[in-house]
Amino acid sequence: xxxxxxxxxxxxxxxxxxxxxxxxxxxxxxxxxxxxxxxxxxxxxxxxxxxxxxxxxxxxxxxxxxxxxxxxxxxxxxxxxxxxxxxxxxxxxxxxxxxxxxxxxxxxxxxxxxxxxxxxxxxxxxxxxxxxxxxxxxxxxxxxxxxxxxxxxxxxxxxxxxxxxxxxxxxxxxxxxxxxxxxxxxxxxxxxxxxxxxxxxxxxxxxxxxxxxxxxxxxxxxxxxxxxxxxxxxxxxxxxxxxxxxxxxxxxxxxxxxxxxxxxxxxxxxxxxxxxxxxxxxxxxxxxxxxxxxxxxxxxxxxxxxxxxxxxxxxxxxxxxxxxxxxxxxxxxxxxxxxxxxxxxxxxxxxxxxxxxxxxxxxxxxxxxxxxxxxxxxxxxxxxxxxxxxxxxxxxxxxxxxxxxxxxxxxxxxxxxxxxxxxxxxxxxxxxxxxxxxxxxxxxxxxxxxxxxxxxxxxxxxxxxxxxxxxxxxxxxxxxxxxxxxxxxxxxxxxxxxxxxxxxxxxxxxxxxxxxxxxxxxxxxxxxxxxxxxxxxxxxxxxxxxxxxxxxxxxxxxxxxxxxxxxxxxxxxxxxxxxxxxxxxxxxxxxxxxxxxxxxxxxxxxxxxxxxxxxxxxxxxxxxxxxxxxxxxxxxxxxxxxxxxxxxxxxxxxxxxxxxxxxxxxxxxxxxxxxxxxxxxxxxxxxxxxxxxxxxxxxxxxxxxxxxxxxxxxxxxxxxxxxxxxxxxxxxxxxxxxxxxxxxxxxxxxxxxxxxxxxxxxxxxxxxxxxxxxxxxxxxxxxxxxxxxxxxxxxxxxxxxxxxxxxxxxxxxxxxxxxxxxxxxxxxxxxxxxxxxxxxxxxxxxxxxxxxxxxxxxxxxxxxxxxxxxxxxxxxxxxxxxxxxxxxxxxxxxxxxxxxxxxxxxxxxxxxxxxxxxxxxxxxxxxxxxxxxxxxxxxxxxxxxxxxxxxxxxxxxxxxxxxxxxxxxxxxxxxxxxxxxxxxxxxxxxxxxxxxxxxxxxxxxxxxxxxxxx
Length: 1014
Known about the structure:
The chain is mostly beta strands. The chain is 7% helix and 47% strand. It contains eight helices and 49 strands. The chain has a 22-stranded antiparallel barrel. Strands 10-15-16-13-14 form a five-stranded mixed sheet. A four-stranded antiparallel sheet has the order 3-2-5-6, with no helix packed on it. The relative contact order is 0.11. The model is unreliable at 5-19 (pLDDT under 50).
């Protein structure tokens, strides 16, 4: 009987318990606008059940017990908790934008800080921007989106290298910033942009926590990860597109070419090469022959989610891109796979790991420089047919007027054979141990393992007596192994004492990079065929040493400390100290210390400010100063190595051997970057307008200057030998950055976001103590002096040549002017008139001077985003103002084709004062002068995209929460007066980078894409 009573009581309580559970419906909206929020995660802390809001912000959570706490979380918004009651059946929840509360977290290296309390010059690019830009490489997402960051490409060839410069060019050596991927040093060029959650750019002394790595700035990369208490989210993104040349240069037609050549020969007193020009017509447009539409495809799939203890994210991607020149002969492929896991092993111990596998393959053509495919396409006469009567590729004559460097570009493409494959595994494994609520110890192991293989086949072929003729076939095979790892152990201590908040960081890091390369050459490839191009089959005896190799092993040991302090959350101070030791320097200078300090004052939190409800909602002043280092220099410069060439006599026989290479300098030491920044952060008009302004001075000291003159008895002129490198240069960059953003929702249907940023930079070399006072770089024409210099009082890499002052109109003007015969020929009417800069009455090398700079006076970006109902639209633009570029893609021989600007040449007195006459006679018109230097300022519409998101209700049964289609154009149009293909291209060299040898144009790409979330 007693047991029956217990059973009845149990059933009654059970029924009562079930009766208490109920379904709760509701809507989640943004507090300030009332706009419904799609995809908000709602989690019941009691049961663990989770749901997400639909397109209208609505949700339904079943089986909720009164008194349970519901957690509402959404990226970009402040998490909110709501405790249910017995009367709740429908609730309206309003989330507050974190951007407005300034509570979003910014990663600053070995820790993070609320955006409100950032004291350095820090910029963030989020995943939404990256998804809108759809860059092929991650670095491209920084162009136009971050003030003071300039991104240039070597050209538009698939897989081409990209140069990133933060706040200008500061050294004659390596200027690229260091990327830290999820805490370890890595290479962002191999990443899939779809895997990136955010890019954080540290521009000033905030980067000093990385010491030796921070001189050129730091890019912190955070990859996507799963979120706790969220159901599995599957996302599929794809795009396919067609690429085309964004520009065709206006070369002369066959008729125009023949008439011009006749005039040139007549002016030189020679017989006309084309007595009858009728019937020539347009002839061959060689650019149209080599340019062809090329496909590009991109797919990526990701799965992420998490429970109370576990988070996970998996992704895979494929990118396939053919070149607009050469098709698959200049193709690029990238395949990636990534896994990210996090686990709370105990309440105190947390585990995290992130691993990325990358497989890249690339084929290339000669796409830049003297003899490149584009160089040939621009210079081969339009009167020549691509094919001869037998259907074979035609040969360009080896005449004095066409030289021995110009060949048929179609034949050049067809006879180019190479392949490159890279496999890479990189990632990080880490543990966090929480000793107390105040102290957390973190240990991470980062790794990069990279292997590459390369094969290059030189086919035996004759182009008719050209420098490209190959008399003996050969194959080069190369294997390279590059590895590095880093071990970081650091602790973070957080303490709050009344109004005082302190965060202390103390740690150490060990970094090691090592690798080797072996290159071998085989001769006489069987059947002269790419299919047999392997050194195991090419058994011809070499005439020179066929094999080369190298090995390296470099290490760093570092200690770092940081103290972050704030009083009442409005007086902010951060001090950092880093000690680095690097094997790239000798024992005398191996260790260096890098201190820095940042500070901030949130004025809007002061009582005298009168609150934040007026016009100004937030105002912060901040400043920083620090010293950072740079060891991005060639290895082993401080020791003597046998890497030079020498010939010895043994038993009356000449024997090839080794000799001392570069003269060592045991006193080599670190380059130092002294960074000063003063900034202001401002929010106005109900946080709709956000302004960031910075003034900075970046002084680089102890630059490593190569080839310091020494006595000839040391043998520096021997093959492979060179003069020593010493610390003997300084550079100063001064500038202002300004960024303003506006965001407003006009109704529930229309949201507008506008962004504008601009950076003004002045670059000046302040010291070059190498005996000559300057360093030369770059090349122009054939056999001419280097056109670019690093010299005191001038910007880095400025152009050094002759100034011109129009065209001589008659012989009287020639007779009255200083003699120009020292430049190659006496001037005549119709020739360029050079300026006697030093006033000595003679035009010679002493009259060379500053004729331009490749460094832009200002760079800027303007971006717009519109959301209306289910439609979304974005447009990104970038502009560069004041940068010059050298036009060096035209051969100066008499019979080559020309751009059509030559039609405005001088043909008699008063006909032209800008373009000289044409003639086969010797002139001085082709020496390097400002005639070849052009203003390369430009405005580029980088990306335009229009998307439409289908109402999720249509796909609810299929489990699809988002279905978006979009179309877009990348590199839509470039507004510029520059005559070449790309006014924004650069080979990346600090001295000579602004010389255009015929940069492969960045293609215009038409895209159609799809985003689907499950």
